[in-house]
Amino acid sequence: MSEKGPCTNTNCDNEIKELYKCHCCLKRVCLTHLIEHVEIRKQNKQRLDNLCYELNTGINTLNLIVEEKLFIIKREQNLIEQAKQLVNTSNSTIAELQNSIEQINLAILSNRPEEIMLKVEPILSEMKDCSCVSECNMETINSN
To answer: If you ran DSSP here, which 8-state letter would residue 5 be given?
Structure first.
Protein backbone atom coordinates (compact mmCIF):
# COMPACT_ATOMS: atom_id res chain seq x y z
CA MET A 1 0.00 0.00 0.00
CA SER A 2 1.49 3.35 -0.99
CA GLU A 3 1.16 6.78 0.57
CA LYS A 4 2.30 10.23 -0.53
CA GLY A 5 5.09 12.29 1.00
CA PRO A 6 8.78 13.13 0.67
CA CYS A 7 11.16 10.20 0.11
CA THR A 8 13.23 9.36 3.21
CA ASN A 9 16.35 8.72 1.09
CA THR A 10 18.73 11.64 1.69
CA ASN A 11 19.77 11.70 -1.98
CA CYS A 12 16.20 12.20 -3.17
CA ASP A 13 14.64 15.61 -3.81
CA ASN A 14 11.99 16.83 -1.38
CA GLU A 15 9.11 16.54 -3.83
CA ILE A 16 5.94 14.81 -2.75
CA LYS A 17 5.84 11.34 -4.30
CA GLU A 18 4.16 8.03 -3.85
CA LEU A 19 6.08 6.19 -1.13
CA TYR A 20 6.58 2.48 -0.63
CA LYS A 21 7.81 0.62 2.41
CA CYS A 22 11.18 -0.98 1.71
CA HIS A 23 11.35 -4.56 2.99
CA CYS A 24 15.10 -4.20 3.64
CA CYS A 25 15.28 -1.07 5.77
CA LEU A 26 11.55 -0.54 6.49
CA LYS A 27 11.81 3.11 5.37
CA ARG A 28 9.29 4.85 3.16
CA VAL A 29 10.97 5.58 -0.17
CA CYS A 30 9.95 6.59 -3.67
CA LEU A 31 9.66 3.97 -6.41
CA THR A 32 13.10 4.88 -7.85
CA HIS A 33 14.81 4.32 -4.51
CA LEU A 34 12.71 1.23 -3.76
CA ILE A 35 13.95 -0.30 -7.01
CA GLU A 36 17.50 0.78 -6.08
CA HIS A 37 17.15 -0.84 -2.64
CA VAL A 38 15.85 -4.06 -4.20
CA GLU A 39 18.75 -4.09 -6.69
CA ILE A 40 21.31 -3.46 -3.93
CA ARG A 41 19.76 -6.25 -1.87
CA LYS A 42 19.88 -8.56 -4.89
CA GLN A 43 23.55 -7.71 -5.50
CA ASN A 44 24.38 -8.22 -1.83
CA LYS A 45 22.62 -11.59 -1.84
CA GLN A 46 24.55 -12.61 -4.96
CA ARG A 47 27.82 -11.52 -3.34
CA LEU A 48 26.91 -13.38 -0.15
CA ASP A 49 26.07 -16.50 -2.15
CA ASN A 50 29.39 -16.23 -4.01
CA LEU A 51 31.32 -15.82 -0.76
CA CYS A 52 29.52 -18.80 0.81
CA TYR A 53 30.31 -20.90 -2.28
CA GLU A 54 33.97 -19.82 -2.12
CA LEU A 55 34.11 -20.60 1.60
CA ASN A 56 32.52 -24.03 1.10
CA THR A 57 35.01 -24.76 -1.69
CA GLY A 58 37.86 -23.81 0.66
CA ILE A 59 36.41 -25.93 3.46
CA ASN A 60 36.06 -28.96 1.17
CA THR A 61 39.59 -28.52 -0.20
CA LEU A 62 41.11 -28.16 3.26
CA ASN A 63 39.09 -31.14 4.47
CA LEU A 64 40.55 -33.28 1.66
CA ILE A 65 44.06 -32.09 2.54
CA VAL A 66 43.54 -32.97 6.21
CA GLU A 67 42.12 -36.40 5.34
CA GLU A 68 45.11 -37.08 3.08
CA LYS A 69 47.53 -36.02 5.82
CA LEU A 70 45.75 -38.24 8.36
CA PHE A 71 45.99 -41.17 5.93
CA ILE A 72 49.71 -40.52 5.48
CA ILE A 73 50.20 -40.26 9.25
CA LYS A 74 48.46 -43.61 9.81
CA ARG A 75 50.55 -45.21 7.06
CA GLU A 76 53.75 -43.82 8.59
CA GLN A 77 52.72 -44.97 12.08
CA ASN A 78 52.27 -48.47 10.65
CA LEU A 79 55.71 -48.18 9.04
CA ILE A 80 57.20 -47.28 12.42
CA GLU A 81 55.48 -50.22 14.12
CA GLN A 82 56.67 -52.63 11.41
CA ALA A 83 60.23 -51.31 11.74
CA LYS A 84 60.13 -51.70 15.52
CA GLN A 85 58.96 -55.29 15.10
CA LEU A 86 61.86 -55.97 12.72
CA VAL A 87 64.33 -54.53 15.22
CA ASN A 88 62.85 -56.56 18.08
CA THR A 89 62.62 -59.79 16.10
CA SER A 90 65.73 -61.96 16.16
CA ASN A 91 65.05 -63.61 12.80
CA SER A 92 64.73 -60.45 10.66
CA THR A 93 66.57 -60.64 7.36
CA ILE A 94 68.94 -58.09 5.90
CA ALA A 95 66.54 -57.59 3.00
CA GLU A 96 63.66 -56.87 5.40
CA LEU A 97 65.75 -54.36 7.34
CA GLN A 98 67.03 -52.68 4.17
CA ASN A 99 63.51 -52.47 2.79
CA SER A 100 62.26 -50.95 6.05
CA ILE A 101 65.10 -48.42 6.05
CA GLU A 102 64.31 -47.46 2.44
CA GLN A 103 60.63 -46.99 3.27
CA ILE A 104 61.49 -44.88 6.32
CA ASN A 105 63.93 -42.79 4.26
CA LEU A 106 61.24 -42.19 1.64
CA ALA A 107 58.79 -41.14 4.35
CA ILE A 108 61.37 -38.79 5.87
CA LEU A 109 62.19 -37.34 2.45
CA SER A 110 58.52 -36.74 1.64
CA ASN A 111 58.03 -34.92 4.94
CA ARG A 112 61.31 -33.06 5.31
CA PRO A 113 63.36 -33.04 2.12
CA GLU A 114 66.05 -30.93 3.80
CA GLU A 115 66.73 -33.61 6.44
CA ILE A 116 69.74 -35.91 6.21
CA MET A 117 68.81 -39.47 5.34
CA LEU A 118 69.80 -42.45 7.48
CA LYS A 119 73.06 -44.01 6.37
CA VAL A 120 73.28 -47.80 6.54
CA GLU A 121 76.04 -48.68 4.08
CA PRO A 122 78.93 -48.84 6.61
CA ILE A 123 77.00 -51.17 8.88
CA LEU A 124 75.89 -53.41 6.02
CA SER A 125 79.39 -53.64 4.57
CA GLU A 126 80.59 -55.14 7.87
CA MET A 127 77.96 -57.86 7.73
CA LYS A 128 78.38 -61.14 5.96
CA ASP A 129 75.90 -62.04 3.25
CA CYS A 130 73.38 -64.23 5.01
CA SER A 131 69.72 -64.16 5.87
CA CYS A 132 70.01 -64.19 9.65
CA VAL A 133 70.73 -60.74 11.06
CA SER A 134 71.04 -61.85 14.66
CA GLU A 135 73.98 -64.18 13.88
CA CYS A 136 75.68 -61.49 11.79
CA ASN A 137 75.21 -58.96 14.55
CA MET A 138 76.75 -61.35 17.04
CA GLU A 139 79.72 -62.03 14.73
CA THR A 140 80.26 -58.30 14.14
CA ILE A 141 80.01 -57.54 17.86
CA ASN A 142 82.31 -60.46 18.81
CA SER A 143 84.93 -59.48 16.23
CA ASN A 144 85.20 -55.99 17.75
So the answer is: E
